[in-house]
# Entry
Amino acid sequence: MIEMRRKDREMDEKFAYGVIDKVAFGTLATISEDNTPYCIPISFVRDENKIYIHSAFQGTKINNIKANHSVTMSFVGDTNIPFPDTESSVGMKANEVFTTEFESAVIKGTAAFVEDTEEKTLALRLLCEKYCPKNMGFFDEVVKSSLKITCVIRIDIEDIKGKRKKYDINKQEMKWGRME
# Structure
């Protein structure tokens, strides 16, 4: 389970899934056989409590997943510098003005190589609908020729956490449960 140090900024599961669904890319973290960490930005799509990614059949992330199926992913949503200048930070303490508003999500899960043709096709369809929806007219033709040479990985989400730092119009940080 992911433990959060700043529980006052922790958001619920619905918020975390919302961050995941609105971002274009995430960062996948794996561990190699010699316990070396490896992070790589990836395109992905979420389907309920599963995340799908695609890849070649070889490479560092593939080798790492074969050695250790446990993975972590992080996602960064909206960010903002709320007090960019002296005028906007009037009345604030010096240590309060150097900050960033953000929203993020982190998942822990287990990665599996998708072998089932129907699930693999579904994952590729979802990825294509997310990243190139205007080209879906070509999907059936392309998937037929590329299905055997494309690796699809499913990450089953086992733990998810969302976090946010945001200020209201009175320059007060909105803590857990307060949306506006």
About this structure: DSSP finds five helices and eight strands in the chain. The radius of gyration is 20 Å. Residues 23 and 140 are 26 Å apart (CA to CA). The first strand starts at residue 10 and ends at 11.
